[in-house]
Amino acid sequence: MAFTLPELPYAYDALGPYMSKETLEFHHDKHHNAYVTKGNELAEKAGMADLSLEEIVKKSYGTDQALFNNAGQHYNHIHFWQWMKPNGGGKSLPEKLQKAFDSDLGGYDKFKADFEAAGAGQFGSGWAWVAVKDGKLQIMKTPNGENPLVHGGVPILGVDVWEHSYYIDYRNARPKYLEAFVDNLINWDYVLECYEAATK
Q1: What's residue 99's pLDDT?
Q2: Cβ distance 146 to 181 under 8 Å?
Q3: What does residue 61 show for φ and ψ, rounded to 5 degrees?
Q4: Per-residue confidence (pLDDT) for residue 2, from 0 to 100
Q5: I want to staple 187 with a disulfide (CB 3.0 to 4.6 A). Which of 81, 85, 142, 183 is the partner?
Q6: Distance between CA 177 and CA 155 in Å, rounded?
């Protein structure tokens, strides 16, 4: 399966003022596109070009670092764009998701505090996640392009804490970016879709 750069599901300026047009142009058109180009080249070289993206991510983890870095980041970003929408975020979760957040994560306020802390506490580049693992929701953080797939989980929400995701808009204020993401950008309908797929 060749990697392809997906179109953004909204206009470049649709997430303002929380994520600027300039950030999305750099992040999607330059950074994500580079993972796609390099990932295709390396998957071909490794004889994995016919595998699904999830299979490439799992198979290259610990065996082919360069391929894993690009495949992992491609997987992460495909979902990252979908995990955001204009006028998103906030406490209005779909009922099924709300129940899972209440039972597994201690409710919305605790999720918000723990998720933002995971993102702020990830040293250097990486991601913070809500993942389904062992049948329950968990908050995780991973370095670089790693994601819950290689740690026995399935991500249903992730936030990119590489500097290219926020530096243009927030400079070094990563906690402010994380707060804006949770309060104003999360696409809860897509999170629910991921949750349902991970738990069926």
Answers
A1: 98
A2: no
A3: -65, 120
A4: 86
A5: 85
A6: 20
Angle at CA of residue 129, ends 113 and 143, nearest 5°? 110
In the chain the beta strands, taken as DSSP E runs, fall at: 126-133, 136-143, 153-160
Q: For residue 138, which phi and psi values (nearest 5 degrees)?
A: -140, 150
Tell me the C-alpha distance between 114 and 120, whole Å.
Answer: 10
User: Nearest CA to 9 among 77, 89, 85?
Assistant: 85
SS3 84: strand
Q: Structure tokens of 59?
A: 């198979």
d(CA 39, CA 3): 7
Q: Cβ distance 180 to 18 under 8 Å?
A: yes
- The helix/strand/coil state of 141 is strand
For 5, counting Cβ atoms within 10 Å of its Cβ (0-12 exposed, 13-18 middle, 19+ buried), the class is: middle
Answer for the pair 163, 177: CB distance below 8 angstroms, yes or no: no
CA 151, 147, 10, 120 torsion: positive or negative?
positive
- Torsion sign across C-alpha atoms 71, 72, 75, 81: negative
What is the CB neighbour count within 10 angstroms for residue 183? 15
DSSP state at residue 157? E
The mean pLDDT of 47-57, rounded to a whole number, is 97
What contacts 175, CB < 8 A, 6 or more positions away?
Answer: 116, 120
pTM for the structure as a whole = 0.98
